[in-house]
Amino acid sequence: MASAELNSIALKMVARKKGILAADESNGTMTKRLDSINVESTSESRRQWRQLLFLTPDISDYISGVIMYDETIRQSDDSGQSFIELLASKDVLSGIKVDNSTHDLAGVPGEFITEGLDGLRGRLAEYYGMGARFTKWRALITVGEGRPSDYAIRTNMHALARYSALCQEQGLVPIVEPEILMDGSHSIDDCRSATTRSLIRVFEELDAQNVDIKGIVLKPNMVISGSDASNRASATDVARQTIDCFLDTVPANVPGIAFLSGGQGDEESVVNLDEINKIANTEDLPWELTYSYGRGLQAAPLAAWLGKAENIPAAQAAFQKRGLDSSAAREGVYAS
Length: 336
Ligand code: 13P
Hints:
Layout: H1 3-13, E1 19-23, H2 27-35, H3 43-54, E2 63-68, H4 70-73, H5 83-89, E3 93-97, E4 102-104, E5 112-114, H6 120-130, E6 134-141, H7 150-169, E7 173-180, H8 188-208, E8 217-218, H9 235-249, E9 256-259, H10 266-280, E10 288-293, H11 295-305, H12 312-330
Parallel strand pairs: 1-2, 1-10, 2-3, 3-6, 6-7, 7-8, 8-9, 9-10
Antiparallel strand pairs: 4-5
Helix pairs in contact: 7-8, 8-9, 9-10, 10-12, 11-12
């Protein structure tokens, strides 16, 4: 795949005013989300939920691409049009989560390794043939007593680079997601240290494995206090620390950074992104800075939907509101 084509897909994913919808919950995670609104999780209820999101009017005003799960990318809307075709008709790119989830890392309790490399080349070729143009792989790094270990960082970042090289070979832009988990009582400085170590390592691995940096999108956590920390850092601190951390670690030719929401509250995820882009508007930063939210975009509409057909317009309005707020934050004009 010509690197110019990968670069142009990556740039489209992080286009101004837009971000990426992470709708790639595995069936297990989606079941938890549907349980929370007392809706039975079936292939059909999951299809209806994703259809509701994808059919929201004017979705492409704030969504550049959607990350799907294997079940979802094979599904269609009520009219029989495949989700991939439906999204393409709205000028929204289709993406696919290709990792096989996180598993215990051998010998180190509390640390994880993401699996899914075996047979990946064949799966990628199939997804490309279906019309997908980008992919996602999430590495999960935890912070705590003695964590993250160098062992966890090295093995996870190596796997992220192996995945990325295979994706680019098959014409797909890899979303490179090294997530430092927010769970815990750690400080923002601990998060910064774990984020710095992980990003340095992942860019070393990407370089060693000949990945074209102009053809990826980085999906990191913000540098943020643990969710149970006693004194959680302010949005201004989160924004400053996040940007300083990236200036230390992320090459200037990465086209874009699309943050995960990672369990931040709805307002928190928007205000923090807004502060980050307020800095970006005054300093000459090399990358686009946008969102790739799952819960941050879906929690409010899911609560409005409750599995009822009559609630679809209200749920779509809630999704649109979260999308437009995130879009404003992506421009640094949410709270102006
Ligand atoms: P959250 O925004 O809910 O963290 O989900 C984004 C994602 O894709 C995590 O892998």
